[in-house]
Write a structure and sequence with these properties.
Largest sheet: 7 strands, mixed, barrel
Shape: globular
Strand order of the largest sheet: 21-26-27-28-31-30-29
Main location: mitochondrion
GO molecular function: 4 iron, 4 sulfur cluster binding; aconitate hydratase activity; metal ion binding
Structural class: alpha/beta
Protein name: Aconitate hydratase, mitochondrial
Keywords: Iron, Iron-sulfur, Lyase, Metal-binding, Mitochondrion, Transit peptide
Pfam family, one: Aconitase
Radius of gyration: 26 Å
Strand content: 15-25%
Oligomer: single chain
Length: about 800
Amino acid sequence: MFRQHALRSTAARRYATASSGPQARATVPNYDLFKQRLDRARATVLENKPLTLAQKILYAHLHDVSSMTSAPVPGETYLKLSPDRVAMQDASAQMAILQFMLSGMKQTAVPTSIHCDHLVEAYEGADKDVARSWQTSREIYEFLQAASQKYGIAFWKPGSGIIHQLVLENYAAPGTLMLGTDSHTPNAGGLGMLAIGVGGADAVDAMASIPWELKAPRVLGVRLSGSLHPWGSPKDVILALAGKLTVRGGTGYIVEYFGEGVESLSCTGMATICNMGAEVGATTSVFPYTPSMARYLRATQRAPIATAADAQQASYLSADEQVTQSPETYYDEIVDIDLSSLEPGYNGPFTPDLYTPRSLMTDTVGREQWSDKVSAALIGSCTNSSYQDLSRAASLARQASERGLKVAEGTEFLVSPGSEQIRATMERDGIQQAFESIGAKVLANACGPCIGQWNRDENPVVKNRETNSIVSSFNRNFRARNDGNPNTMNFLTSPEMVLSAALSGRLSFNPLADTLTDSTGKEFKLQPPTGDELPKDGYAQGRDEYKPLLDHQPAMEIPIAPTSARLQTLEAFVPWNGQEFFNTRVLITVQGKCTTDHISAAGKWLKYKGHLENLSRNTLIGAANAAMDGQVNLVRNSIEGLEPAQGTIPDVALAYKTANVPWLVIADYNYGEGSAREHAAMQPRFLGCNMVIARSFARIHETNLKKQGVLPLVFARPDEDYFIFAKDPHELVVQTQGVKDINEHNPVVTLLVERIRDGNVIETYSVECRHTMSADQIGWFKAGSALNLIASQQGATAST
């Protein structure tokens, strides 16, 4: 499969955008090639059946349709695809680059970009925080910059902006396929791109000319009707949808929006909706091409793409006419949302699918005894940092400022622009001044508090772990994610509602009905927000220092110091020995929600993303133990005499690794939801985990486990067999039946479980499980990891 020279020579035919070096912005997609591929697929395996937009884009990116013998079956068939582009943020790019370095490639096969947005900690504000990040993370930035220069990757420095906003402004193009090493990569669906979040090893596939595998998704159609009322926001669409679908309701689906309501939305508004589609577990989300997308492309210096896309609108960049006329026949599921009746919403706390409409929020705050006082109000993140978002919120700030009003006492108000372009335009057009006039602190063009990069340690609510409420326009609100305080309740909402909460200082405040008091003691109501879809005077380009570095130097040396605490060259994982797993211990039976934040925490741990050994010290520290009344990061050691007898999960896992004792994890539903971080798979593998058995998996995490040689299994009877492992799992010893002969045609693997107490077997169980691995994925497992397989195939090619 991995034949570097042969694949490089055919890259222009395989990929619509073969890399010729780093790019400042996307070029016009090869729509003729997409049409050829799609026509070939329609005429053969698809039997000329009408297609949704998502299906069109997927099948136009099939790597080799001639190798397919039948139509793809959603949920069963693995598609081999040729992505057009890869985008990576600095935290995940470290491990991806370390893996790509072992591929032997001279440069990336497709255009690739790295965006430094995750390592900037919000503290003093904007430029000071960026400067401090250079002090604390210079080693990482220099590593990523050198790798970018060596492999022909566009490098965006810290302070240039958030990956998803920069992709939307520069690289997204309708009808193309992109992989991004961040779960919110689907943001680009607002520009008609099929953009999918993956782990670093998946990104390496595309960067190294290897077909990328995706299980054929189902398509969930969301029919939008009407138009938003003045207080309504595109954010309210996805908040309501998350409330309907829950965090796992979209798993295995692409969410495709359609209906007359689509035409009323701005491009950046549609991006907001697609961005947070990650929170329902969807593979990605996408909108059909609309005039607002064309306007945005032209406003961001991509008029040639708009012109080409205009010509493709009917034939390629929207669902087939039969689908539009009879959507119930062609979508696997349909959800209806009437924009006209949609209220502003709040989702939270602690999960992004707990939806409360504004009209019920005041009563719900009292009934649930949520902290009404808002300790911080935050606008920004990759979800809501567009010009339209900020201009609408600024209109409310101006109303308050004109009446002598500032943010409520005890409420911190923080704003994170999405990019240097947005920041410069915001400053030029008076938006920044409007925010600052009421007491805002403008942060760097980076992720900041959204991902836990928020120095709030001196705030009493964090220092004393007090229960408090924050209101944000972010996309994710897992416990302790934002400031490290497990008692901080983050309510996700629109920028307009965040601004209202900042002024009132109360979660229960309803700007549609309640009044504020101005500096003279007079009560007044906020008028509905207003703003511009695009800046009337065009976008300001910002400072030159934040433009991308486009400097391909193939001879560049990549610095990794042997003594570094932050970067470590990778060593290959040990290949599978071809036998059943024996004497495997249950490290933990995880109770309830276990996201990738729980498995591999971010925040202060982000600095170790390039050093697997050091990062492994945070493995599963957020996981609750079902056998110990839900206690977090505490397990019993099953090996008598091995220390610690009881300890943290990383400590016991390391003890098992040192003693050559294999171990596994038992997990609840939707294990691994949230961020795309592959570290959540690599860390357990590094510490000796051979299997994860779950009631169900989140898509990206299940793939990441497969990539790293960990066997992911699901219970055949999840509501029964999970509980076998919930009682004293340290007494259980597991061996497998079916791993030795594992193949893609027989998904069954049986666990033979013994409960041993005082040296005696007191109970035995036979637990049927199932795997979902394709033939290629079984190859990864047998080799010990996907990277091992690539390396072995490259070695075989080099020797011939």
